[in-house]
Amino acid sequence: MTGDGTRVVRAGLPEPRPNEPTLPGPAFAAHFHLPGEVSGPYTYGREANPTWTALEEALSELEAPGGGAGTVVFPSGMAAISAVLLSRLRPGDTAVLPSDGYQLLPALRERLEGFGVTVRSAPTGGDAQLAALEGARLLWLETPSNPGLDVCDIRRLADAAHRRGALVAVDNTLATPLGQRPLELGADFSVASGTKALTGHGDVLLGYVTCLDPELTAGIRAWRKITGAIPGPMESWLAHRSLATLQLRVDRQAGSALALAEALRDRPEVTGLRHPGLPTDPAHALAARQMRGGRFGCVVSFVLPDRAHAERFLSALRFVDEATSFGGVRSTAERRGRWGGDAVPEGFIRFSVGVEDTEDLVNDVLTALNQAKG
């Protein structure tokens, strides 16, 4: 089996053809030539597109290098999350969600409950969702969680859920398939926002779902067709192009994120410091067993004394953009409480480490912290 770097560079590419591009350009087509009866892979633009196919094959190779996986791409991460939850759950079913997951999960919970689905929630840390599994139809995990960076044991929870007849989905956005492979750990669905580290340039909205079970894949694909939640061919092509540098970006970001976390450990104004790569982090032991290649993600979270202190810190940064999202080549940071959807202190900072020189980035952060003290 090839290494991660070789795989990301070659994933999903067609067989070489003389005088043809290595990665064919995006196919812009609402319809395709269709003489006679309906047949062939491409009939109408809402159902399939060659550019989607190439990206889906690439993502399947990354999520399950052993083969056999199927991927369905969507126009955003939330479209992918919604496709799994809304296509699998029926009135009377029970779902278990993380109480500390992505900030739009509570809004999705309200919608599910309005459809007659019972929703239970528990924190990611300590595998707390185990206690809520009885009678569940679907277990949703997010590890590492966003923005708190807690980690749960995917294999343990998946085994427990399957014994109770529940399917298991894992939001793998923060880890990426280079840092973690949920399907190998027993999950039925690996779901991610491609908007973040997967594409990495902050210019594409995308999501995807990967399954090993062909029936589950077919169900997700049918949901996309029915709802029309389809990605644009240009976005799909940009995402596939970006995969070639995924390992370079992920490894650089993970190394710099750990260096930043280590630099923050001794700052008296910093509390609640979290990064799974820190040996002192409560999630480190589990993350080290479950996540691949020392890739613990690009996000560092910490708390400054109050809102004003956090805003002074953000304003003082030179090489870091104040923006939401994470995983991009340019470092970003934000006071997460400004959105109002996460249970975090007013001074909580979610910091996404980019690919700048590590020393420059760390020095910038320490200088900004000194200035923020006033």
From TrEMBL:
InterPro entries: Cys/Met-Metab_PyrdxlP-dep_enz (IPR000277), PyrdxlP-dep_Trfase (IPR015424), PyrdxlP-dep_Trfase_major (IPR015421), PyrdxlP-dep_Trfase_small (IPR015422)
Keywords: Pyridoxal phosphate
Domain of life: Bacteria
Protein name: Cystathionine gamma-lyase
Transmembrane segments: none
Coiled-coil regions listed: none
Region Disordered, annotated ranges: 1-22
Family: Belongs to the trans-sulfuration enzymes family.
UniProt-listed Pfam families: Cys_Met_Meta_PP
UniProt keyword Transmembrane, yes or no: no
Required cofactor(s): pyridoxal 5'-phosphate
CDD domains recorded: CGS_like
Keyword match Membrane: no
